[in-house]
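ESCALATION

Customer reports they have been waiting on this structure for their group meeting. Please prioritize. Original submission:
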Amino acid sequence: MAETENNETEERTAEAGTPAQAQSAPEASAPPREPVEVVAPKERRRRSRAAKAAQAKTGQPRTPEERHAERVTERRRKARARRVERARARDKARAAAPSGQATPPREHDPGRQKTRQGVVVSDKADKSITVRIDVARRHRRYEKIVRTSNTLHAHDESNEAHVGDTVIVRECRPMSRLKRWRLLEVVERAE
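Update from on-call: job pushed to the front of the queue and completed.
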């Protein structure tokens, strides 16, 4: 039996010629493969919707009540999934936060004006100052201290604040195009 297999192999090799030709011969005899169609996601979605519409046409037409009931059940299913995900996120946030420390209350209450403490960076304009507010906070995910600053324009009626002074400003009605704050007090004078 081993001899017959060897003879068949030799005959195939002899028919094909060289070993390289033997490898290309089966490929040449096989029918050419059709290229696989690559479909974009939007096109795939369009086709699936068209197939769904065709399936709906072939079946019994549904009444508006049936379609509405189907939408309601789908919305309930999605709402249930959202509730589960939100509860999971809440539990994760509670576990990550220190147990003794609660979430601080919101800084701004309606009807109460905000106050900020900052350093005067410019007092060139008459009855106006520019105040830089520096904020240092811990990044929620990476725990690194992130320092940012923003500037705001404040009304200084008596021109008492100068560059370098630490001041407290309070929110107020718009007094000009940029001024929405007014000077409350000068905490520390520049040297």
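Sent to customer with the following note: The chain has a mean pLDDT of 83.
Escalation resolved.
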